From TrEMBL, chain B:
It comes from the Bacteria. Its cofactor is AMP. It comes from Stappia indica. One of its GO terms (molecular function) is electron transfer activity. This is Electron transfer flavoprotein subunit beta. Residues 23-211 form the Electron transfer flavoprotein alpha/beta-subunit N-terminal domain.
Amino acid sequence: MTASGFDVTSASDVFFEEEHKMLRDQVRRFVEEEIKPHADQWEADGATPRELLRKMGALGFFGIRYPEAYGGSAMDERATVVLSEELGRSTYAGVAITALVHTDMASVHLFNAGNDAQKAKYMPGIVSGEIITAVGVTEPDAGSDVKGIRTTARREGDHYVLNGTKTFITNGVLADVYCIAAKTGGDGPASKAVTMFIIEKGMEGFTVSRALDKHGWRSSDTAELSFVDVRVPAENVLGEEGRGFYEIMKNFQNERLVLGAMAMGEAQAAIELTVAYVRDRKAFGAPLWEKQAIRQRLAMLSSRVEAARQMIYATAVRVARGEQLVREVSMIKALCGELVNEVMYACVQFHGGMGFMRESTIERMSRDARVQAIGGGATEVMLEEVAKRM
Amino acid sequence: MKILVPVKRVIDYNVKVRVKADGTGVDLANVKMSMNPFDEIAVEEAIRLREAGKAEEIIVVSVGPQQAQETLRTGLAMGADRGILVKTDATTEPLAVAKILKKVVEEEQPGLVILGKQAIDDDCNQTGQMLAALLGWSQGTFASKVDLGEGTVDVTREVDGGLQTVKLKLPAIVTTDLRLNEPRYASLPNIMKAKKKPIDEKSPEDYGVDVAPRLEVLKTVEPPARQAGVKVADVAELVAKLKNEAGVL
Ligand SMILES: Cc1cc2nc3c(=O)[nH]c(=O)nc-3n(C[C@H](O)[C@H](O)[C@H](O)COP(=O)(O)OP(=O)(O)OC[C@H]3O[C@@H](n4cnc5c(N)ncnc54)[C@H](O)[C@@H]3O)c2cc1C
Ligand SMILES: Cc1cc2nc3c(=O)[nH]c(=O)nc-3n(C[C@H](O)[C@H](O)[C@H](O)COP(=O)(O)OP(=O)(O)OC[C@H]3O[C@@H](n4cnc5c(N)ncnc54)[C@H](O)[C@@H]3O)c2cc1C
């Protein structure tokens, strides 16, 4: 039972059409029936199973913005926001990120920069869920500072030879196809030296060196990847040589909107289950909900989450119309990454000792939320993007 | 053969319903609405019959406010072919709905009407039966199995004593029970396709039916909160309590 019933904004005609509401209903049902009953096991396993991803593919969740020719539904950013928010609401952010990295952070590189042959080869499988994708930009010595990557790709005839290490790569173990950033530009300006490559699992010299043990997102696999003299055919270059940095920056916009929406889905779910908990839990002769100190704090957090959601919705509508909104998207990522953590802190607090126990949902959610202020553009880096535009 | 499936827009089954402070009804503001779950089962059954080659066209019809169009659209996304919205803001009572459906049936000439056994908002459990009476058709209510033959349909019904199978002559009315099937998801490509499927808009006046409520709600109250139970030490104590306190033995 959702204590709050439903909320007006996510059904609002100001932002959404009938099909978005229907998509929301379908994802919500999928979360209830296919994710929640099983995901504790996936948390223990350290990965979300293929079987689930194929089911999501079959329902069209992986082809939201891709053309019908590839099995997609050619919808816009609003639909992506719906998917992200509802998966975030599942309370299993690890499952959510497994899907969302595939749809909105990795495969977008292939779709946006790929040529017709590359897209024909991979997109149908990406949409159906047969092919799972990962994106590798971050390295042990370069995270926020993308230009600092050290992986190199040296041209040799009709091949490139790739060497380097990637780390913190979501779906790193699970994926079939990887979009990997490497330096091709020698000593030229760093912004013109990065190129994206399609790397398939099984290419000689490419190995998953280890699966990483994480604080949260435990049902998402995260890996370190190693490239030793990997011979990559030149036809696997994504887009133009030397344009990789710009592609990465462009795709970050979508990624950050998605992460913001996912975080607000997490925050809503946390507030809802905490309201239910404190309505039920009695101390000093009455439900904790009767304490103004508690309910007013939850009411304020709920107000801030609502404000953030409406900003996400409005931004999605505008991005869908073709506006470039680096400032707003950076604001969203900074705001939501921090807000979701404030929400989790308060929600754990109001669960009392139970909030500290592994058996409570809120304990897992608070661990999952932490990375929202770090991954996909850390808060400080996002705030620099905002400050530059003030 | 055509199959007609009436669908109702109701409060979502997940929502914890709250009574309005003034007792005039339940609070519908900002509450999530969905297709009545028994109607989803009806739509699913119709689609399965079409997939089995036993029906050609599925028409979903809803009597309700403009937003009931979303409910119809859900039926279309699941696989129905077209929709009819009979628009009214009045509280819909079973008899009025059954009268409208009778007119729709006369226009569309379906071989089978599949309805939910009841709607989870008012739990009336009347519309299907009333429609059967108005049309003079056979009815198989609370179906847990529907087996469509040549000119007949075998309906397995969930009754108090177990299961009962009735053979009905077509055209007929079937109402669905929970265990008939598990409704499918509407895939995203099908949601997009549903946008292009036609929905006819009608009004009760088009069918000459007066939908004004015949019933007046005097008061709505929360059900009494359940009292906490008591633990008994053994069977002897239980029997003693049943005898002396409850007075049922
Ligand atoms: C679970 C998880 C999954 C991930 N998945 C992927 C993936 O699939 N693919 C991928 O490529 N990467 C992935 N990442 C990497 C992620 O994008 C980086 O962790 C993130 O960009 C931060 O980089 P970093 O870890 O190197 O931190 P650093 O860049 O070393 O930053 C450390 C701290 O310094 C701050 N800082 C950095 N620069 C500045 C500045 N200019 N001003 C002020 N403060 C600054 C940061 O905000 C941060 O707080 C993942 C990370 C995690 C944790
Ligand atoms: C790891 C761990 C070890 C522990 N070890 C022990 C131990 O060894 N022995 C032992 O006896 N106990 C132990 N405890 C229990 C601990 O003391 C309680 O968890 C703590 O007192 C809070 O009580 P609670 O969990 O019942 O939360 P609740 O009392 O249910 O409180 C929930 C929330 O409501 C707030 N709240 C409560 N009353 C009010 C009010 N009047 N106004 C506003 N807000 C209010 C609280 O601050 C809290 O945020 C332990 C707990 C943990 C987590």
